[in-house]
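worker-3 :: picked NAD-dependent succinate-semialdehyde dehydrogenase
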Amino acid sequence: MTQNPSRAQWMRTQNFIAGRWCDADRQDVFAVLNPADDSLIAQVPDSGPADAAAAVDAAHAAFAAWRATPAKQRAQVLKRWFAAITAQQEELGRLISLEQGKPLAEGRAEVAYAASYVEWFAEEAVRAHGDVIPAPVTGRRMWTVKEPVGVVAVITPWNFPAAMIARKIAPALAAGCTVVGKPAEDTPLTALALVALAEAAGLPPGVLNIVCASREHTPAVIGAWLADARVRKISFTGSTPVGKLLARESAATLKKLSLELGGNAPFIVFDDADIHAAVEGLIVAKFRNGGQTCVCPNRVYVQAGVHDRFVELLAARVGALKVGPAQREDSQIGPMINARAVEKIERHVDDAVRHGARVVVGGRRVRDGVVHGPNYYAPTVLTGATPAMALAQEETFGPVVPVFRFHSEAEVIAQANDTPFGLAGYFYTRDIARAWRVADALETGIVGINEGALAAEAAPFGGVKESGYGREGSRHGLDDYMHLKYVCEGNLS
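worker-3 :: tokens ->
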């Protein structure tokens, strides 16, 4: 068993099925590109239904033995996986930055964040406690136990290629489930590396299987898992339309679902807020990964009394952010993931300007002596935002801050909740009573009060309304991969 595998051992470009690294059944491949300049990084298998079925075959065959493995032993495997990830933090961070585009500092931080989930669920594996129920009659004993749901299919997004894999796979393995997975087509290399490290940590063959697929062939891979009754759960992070499709198509076999879907997070600054703290909190929350996160503030509401001063301070901070390739240590905003992402940002900014918004900072693509690729967009601040603009209704998923002016607490709560989404919300105030009122009133699964950095392995992550259901992280995250069995024994007296 390899404790500290070399880079050659974990840099992989093949599928992993039944403990073997293999090409796609059809031998097809697709290209993984560097978003900084669209250059080729690698080619990986372009899988189809046969590969998806083979992965389920392997996971189903391995389930009985993995389920029967004592929780403490499963935890020890996860702890070795955690140690292997941590030992490769620098190399993995560079790989994330290369294929996803986030700055190096953020790539390194994501590795630590991903590892924290593996460690957390290693510790939670031995805490899947049941209950003893007081019997209503003599001569009877009643109790509950928690059991793994079975084979789990995990489908992960491109914006956090390490963290999303860890946040889904670690609790599944801790619970005693086996896994089939498909990483996002833009960022498969990080996922393959993490699987190779799990293999080196001693994970038995078939317990964890991963297949890659292009955007064109992804529906066929996922469709095979949706139709297969042996797949008992799907965990997906991505868009709301795809989440709704998964919910519909999984109904035939009544799979358990965890769906972490779109967001439209409000960020509210009240007159009584610490304005400097609010600006810094917004910088942290909004510009992480260049604004390409599901919990990024998408609508920034600032009360009239501090609006102008807030915009002045924010514009100064945003204008000083350094845009550049992820491999440069001083870069703070890297490239967007691909051309489609930049086109959407441009569409939102152009629509806002046509509807009366004013560009304070940014509002354009970036090409200069440092930036040579097509996928960079300048950090942007807009004022005069209104609910009629596209950026108020859709996630921009980029470094754009639209500022809305408001006057009363009731007004801003109504506007903040006027969306089908409900993932995260933020607000800044020094009024304790207001803090309780607004936290209660926001229709979101996550609330940040005077805080822009929300995520932690010990906290439940998930949304309400059309942002999905289920929770990841925390002790509740383990329950999402288990079901509850009630046992009753009678005639004991």
